[in-house]
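Figure 2 data, in text form.
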Amino acid sequence: MEETKINSRRKPDWLKIRLPLGDTVKQVRGIIDEHKLNTICTSGACPNQAECWGAGTATFMILGDICTRACKFCNVNTGKPLPADYKEPARVAGSIRLMKVKHAVITSVDRDDMEDGGAEIWAMTIRKVRELNPNTTMEVLIGDFNGIKHHIQKVIDEKPEVISHNMETVRRLTPVIRTRAKYDLSLKVLKQVVESGIRSKSGIMLGLGETEEEILQTMDDLREIGVEVLTIGQYLQPTKNHIEVQAYIDPEVFKKYGIIGLEKGFRHVESGPLVRSSYHAEKHIQ
């Protein structure tokens, strides 16, 4: 197997970023704090905040901020979640209106403690966003709902413009970095989305020890079921308690994978060290 091109584990210059400042950023953060919202933009200290917010895109996290899973790459809190807040959909929708968001990305923690995995609140949120923001388009980044089709279908039936579910990594490394989630189960979720006719999307991280052969096989697996959009980004270790970075991938290698992905038939491929699931999300509905 050919290894992906790696650099020293010392963080390279292209990953040394400063979090954005400015009036737009302050205004958006103020709305987020006032309405007690959870966003991946802020909780994940995303380097693309200013660019995305300037383009009218923001990523909201619903169903609280405590996940029932403990994936080794993720910085979201793990534990016993608080009871679901059925007022949350209205708060999210209202904040999207205040922020004048043109394209909303909505994701969630995993809620294995709930009988439906949170599917009903997912549906309520999409409906409320549509009601208050009829001109706002939506991408939803969902978990696997343990592969239960009628729970996934609740989200599909609300017809967001894009439904995304991340593979996160290659088959061999899935048991190492993900808890409960399975590689083939994620493909099953994505296949159900593809068959619905809604635009489908997935994402993977590099730098966890995967090989080029494994990356290309993951692309092939996604294309075989018809996934249309792919994001590829660099894994960054959130804390010392998370799995270590095995390699920092050169930007030229990311460019190469972007070209290969398009050649394999993906409609859109976002591939770069700072790419995250929602990066340029507003372009993926076109």
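Caption note: The longest strand covers residues 199-206.
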